[in-house]
Every structure is written in structure tokens, then in C-alpha cells.
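Appendix B. Raw example, untouched.
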Amino acid sequence: MKPVVPSNADPVDLLISRLAGPLAPDVRQAFRRAAEEALARIPCPGEGAVYRAIAPLQRVYLDPPSDWRASWDITQETRLSKLRAAPAIGYGRARDSTRRLRVAE
């Protein structure tokens, strides 16, 4: 489902909000203030100029996940899980006996 965007929304505010989305909640306001300051220095604020001024700021405030969080896999999970404990569905059955084809009439 797509988010509902008001028709009278300012495109600059929408861009700032979109770029602030992946940031940690505690730095979003600082990013917004820095973006507004950067926009005040643009002499002719077109859509491309606004994006080029704000996008590098996002990289400054972004705190990427650690290598451990980025490379997590279910095999590294320490808790018991039905997905890990039980055999795969259909494990041990002959492949021919599990597949039933319906004939269209």
C-alpha cells in the first residue's frame, strides 16, 4: 500500500522526510535543521539542486548497521526455532509421489 501524500505538500519537505526516514530517531531533527540551512544557501532551488544539497547530508548523519547486523542469518540465531529444528517440508518423500497434477477439463 502506498502512503497517502497530501496534494498541498511541499516537495522539499517530502524529500527531507524521505531522506530522514532511514536515520536514527535521535538525529532526524538535527538532519532536518542542517538540510534547511543548506537550502537557505542555494540561490536557485530547483528539484535537482535541492537533492544535490541534501543527499550528502544524509550520509553524514547515517549510522549504518554493524557487520554483524548486516550479515545476520537464521543459522546464527541462538534461540530454538521450528524452522531450524524440524526437517524441510517434504523431506524423505519421493518426489514423484508428492506432486499431483490436475488436468483441466
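End of appendix B.
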